[in-house]
Amino acid sequence: MTAPKAAFEQIKQAALGFPGAEYAVILGDHEVVRVKDKVFLWLNAEDGGCGFGLRLPHSQDAAMALPFVEPMGYGMAKWGWVGASFKKNDDVPVKMVLEWLEESYRKVAPKKLVAQLDGGAKAAAAPARAPARKARPKARPSARR
Questions:
Q1: What is the CATH architecture assignment of 4-121?
Q2: Would you kindly state where each structural domain of the chain is located, as residue ranges?
Q3: Most CB atoms closer than 10 Å: which of 50, 56, 73, 125?
């Protein structure tokens, strides 16, 4: 377990380490980490505490059973988004949040970037396909006879 300020930085840096990830401020004042303009982590650091919004398609139900997790507002919960909030003196379960972070990234990121995360294993598993051959136009009978 880690203090909120240290956990915030650790999780933010881990998110920025994913292929194609970038930090952005959207909607005026919301800090996020996104990939190809798709957010996979919402960040909040206020009053010595911290909070994270993540998309958890597989572990949303289990996460919701924890006392520091709530469904994200604005109807985002129906797509698997949860918010985890920690106060100034709380211990943050960084290892678990990092697992959620990877799940969120995998849901949002393009398959090619997820394959990079896996060391190219998924990309190499699919055999390369030969380019499709264009059909040749059929010869027309000559107008001359």
A1: Alpha-Beta Complex (3.90)
A2: 4-121
A3: 50
- The tokens of 53 are what? 């919004």
DSSP lists the bridge partners of residue 34 as: 22, 39
User: DSSP code of 119?
Assistant: T
- By the 10 Å C-beta count (0-12 exposed, 13-18 middle, 19+ buried), 93 is classed as middle
Q: In whole angstroms, give the CA distance from residue 51 to residue 93.
A: 12
Q: One-letter amino acid identity for 73?
A: G
Query: What are the pLDDT digits (tens) for 67-118?
Result: 999 999 888 888 889 999 999 989 999 999 999 999 999 999 999 999 998 8
Alpha-helical runs (H) found in the chain: 4-16, 60-64, 94-108, 111-117, 121-125
